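Sample intake sheet
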Amino acid sequence: MLGTHRSTADIGAFLREARAAVDAYLVRVGADAERALGGDVGRAVAYALGTPGKRLRPALLLAAYQDLGGTGDATPLAAAVEIVHTYSLVHDDLPCMDDDDLRRGRPTVHRAFDAPTATLAGFRMVPLAARVLAEGATALGLPSERLRAIACTLLDAAGATGMIGGQVLDLEGEGKALDLAALTAIHRAKTGALITASAVMGALAAGADEMALAAIRGYGEAVGLAFQIVDDVLDATATSAELGKTPGKDALQDKATFAKLLGLDGARTAAEREMERAIAQLGSGGVDSTVLRGIAEFIVTRRS
C-alpha cells in the first residue's frame, strides 16, 4: 500500500509513488498479455501498457481508497482503470479518429505497428481490464456485491453513456459552433466519466457510505471537467516536448474547445472554478483528504 501523505507538499510524492506502482504492475500485465496473445497484437498490447503516462486516474482511485479507510493494495484496481484509459487512447489516435502520430512521447500504436493491429489491441484491453479488476478485488477480499458495483462503475464510464458516447459526440461536433452547454456535455462523458469513475471506484472499494460516495462523485465530475479545460489550454499553448503528443490538433481539426469558446484566460478561470467546486464537494460529504485536494490543484496547474 502507498505511504500516507497528509501535507500538500507530499502530493508530488504520492503521485510519483502511485505512478511507479501502477507502471510496474502494467509492465507485468503487458508481459503476460504478450505471451498469452502472441504475435503483433500481443506485442502491441504490451507496448501500449508500457508507454509512460501521468497515471492520474489510478492516483485518484488510490487516493480515494486510502483516505476513505481502505486497507491493502488497491494497485490492481487502479491498473484496471489505466488499461481502459490506454485502450481509449490507442483507438483515439487511429487514422479514422484523431489520426495522431505521437502519444506520451512515443509513436502511437498504429504507427509502431499498423491500424488493424492497434484496433485489435485496443479491443483486447477491455476484457483484460475486467480480469485485472476481478483479480484485484479478490485479493482485497471484497464481497461480490462490492466488486459488481465497482465493475459496473468502470464499464458504464467506458461505454455508450460515458467515454465512447462522448467520443461520438466529439467527432460529430467537429466543424460546428457548439455552445458551452454542448461542449461541457461532450467532455463530462468523453473525459470526465472515467475520471469520476476512478475516484468513485476507490471509494466503493474502501466501503464508503452514501454521503461520502456522493461527495466523491461530485468531486470527480468537477476535476474531470477541469482536466479537460486545462487540456484544451495546453493544446493551444504547450510544446510537443511538454505534452508528449502533437499540440494544435484541436485547431487543425476545427474542434470546439474551452480555450476557443472562452479564450485562454477565461478557460483558466473556468478550470480554477471547477477545482474550487471539487474541493467544496469533499467538504459537503465530510471527506477530509489532503491528497484529493492536492490532486485537484495539480490538475489545474500542470504543464502536460
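Comment: Residues 33 and 42 are 6 Å apart (CA to CA). The chain has a mean pLDDT of 92.
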